Amino acid sequence: MTDVVRLESLSRTYDGGVTALDGVTAAFPAGSFTAVMGPSGSGKSTLLQCAAGLDRPTSGRVFIDGAELTATKDTAMTKFRRTRVGFVFQDYNLLPSLTVAQNVVLPLRLAGRRADRRRVRMVLGQLGLGDRTDELPERLSGGQRQRVAVARALVAEPAVVFADEPTGALDLRSARQVLTLLRSVVHEHGRTVVMVTHDPVAAAYADAVLFLADGRLAGSLRAPTADAVAERLAHLGDRVGVAA
Amino acid sequence: MIAVAWRNVRHRPGGFVATFLSAFLGAALLMAFASLLDTASDVDETSGESLSTTGSVGDGWCLIIVAFAVTSTLTLAVRQREQQIALLRSVGATGPQLRRMIVGEAVVVALVASAVAVPVGWLLGRVLVDLLRDTGQVASTVDARFGPIALTVGFGVTVLGSLVAGVATSRRTAAHGPRRQRPWRRRIVAGLFLLTGANCAVLTATLMDGKGIDAMQTAGQAGIWASIGLALLAPELLRLVTAVLLPVVRLFGAPGELALREPRLASAVMPVLIFTGIATGTVYMQGIEDRAARGQIPSGYAQDIKTLNYVVVGMITVFVAIMLVNTLIAATAHRRREFAQQRLAGATRGQVLGMVALEGVLITVTGVLGGLAASMFTILPFGSARAGRVWPEASPLAFGIVAVIAAGLTAAALVQTARRTVRGPATAAAHA
After folding, report:
1. What ipTM was assigned to the predicted interfaces of this complex?
2. Cβ–Cβ gap A93/B344 under 8 Å
3. Surface-to-core class of residue B331, CB atoms within 10 Å of its CB (0-12 exposed, 13-18 middle, 19+ buried)
């Protein structure tokens, strides 16, 4: 399997000397669903943002779909992201003034591409939102909004979809729907998804879990179960303590 | 709560800059005009009359503008702090306490602004007297004075105006729950303003016909009422202009589509419309008067009025510039999150700024056309009453200049604030 995302000794230091990422090397193969886990401040969100071209690493390299992210200017980074990366946020980040359908096609329109409205309606129909396409996001439940956000992330057919705590603001049932959706995106449509979460149950939906602690890799787990993930998380501190 | 108010002003003076500037300029102008009344107390009769007319008419103008500008800047200053007010409420502040805090802030700012305005008002008063002396409207022996009337009017009107504005603002913001939208109430009030304007216009064309320069009073008022009335209808006018310009804006692709979707622009239309309406009306009214009085030796009274008209246009320009910048800064800062979300969805900074620029076009076109319509309430009846012809024989150049100033102010304020808002990474701003 080829790697869709490759990170080489990625480091990110913030002004003021806080090191969020400290030399992380990782690869995410095509058609995989990976969860990135770790305690607060472990650098998992920074990892995702650096990998997605939303943040610039202090050092290290990011390859997406074989192309290196070398852009440093905001505009160039945006254009790089448009064609290769979809992103799902914890708080949806749907535009309140646009309807569901308009939100979904926005990335295409911004890239100056024509949106196939029939296909958008079909996709939204598959997500159980067929009758809500002309509603504003404020009229939707959290789970529905997040499904719209997933549809938006997929509309440009990106090489990889990054999701940052996509179920963090959802109730259990909506969370399950969104996670099942992300899983089917990978297993039925062959996409690649990388998801940051702190919830072992959410992580168990993924094919593999990558653990981070204090900005460094702290092991991985294949075919995770919620219990196994929780167990590993509980002992992350011990391992880091031993390594240090 | 007064203590909290005082600490707020000291801790974040930046939040009160616009309110302070409006109150300061207002107080300075009020004092300058009122000092003419001080000067008038001890001079010959003709000079005294000239000074009194200029002083009281000027002060009347300032009163309207101060009230309007302070209210609008204060409302925005408070709205920008919704979070702080929610926080105070959550730790146990009651509605009346919050109201006292907001009113207290307004009064503190007004007092400081009036005190700082004293030397400026004194200087401006001297300049006005010099101006009147140079144009021969008062005797050359008259010396400018700055006394109790100037101080009383300056402090009194500014502090009282701010107090009233503070009470009005606090009633709206300190009420529990989200603000209810009441478009019908707004439309009815707009209708009343427009009716009053139409009434003044009809009076000008009928009752004031042949009364010469005195027709200016009702004609000027007609334009002001109509400008405020139309400004209150800004959301409706904006929708109309947007519908007409739809195909043009669409040509700009995604930024155009986003610009068409933004409902928050109406508050920016108001100052543009009022500026264009009053400035255009006043300048053309004076133009008609100049042509009608051609060949006659202008009386001192006509001279006073002419000076005043241009001072008024200048003042309105300054005030509107402050209001416009203030409105746009507040509205744009509010949109920090929205801009960030657009960028996270794949918009470049250039596309966001393009959208803002197109919004600016919609604001300017609506404001300038609405203002032109409002100015007709002044120009047409005054032309009919003073010159016997409804449509003035004037070049559109003056209106062009007014429109260019309006467009320039809007563009500068809008793009400058938007550019600052999209600085920095989008990920941080999306959570703000």
Report:
1. 0.76
2. yes
3. buried
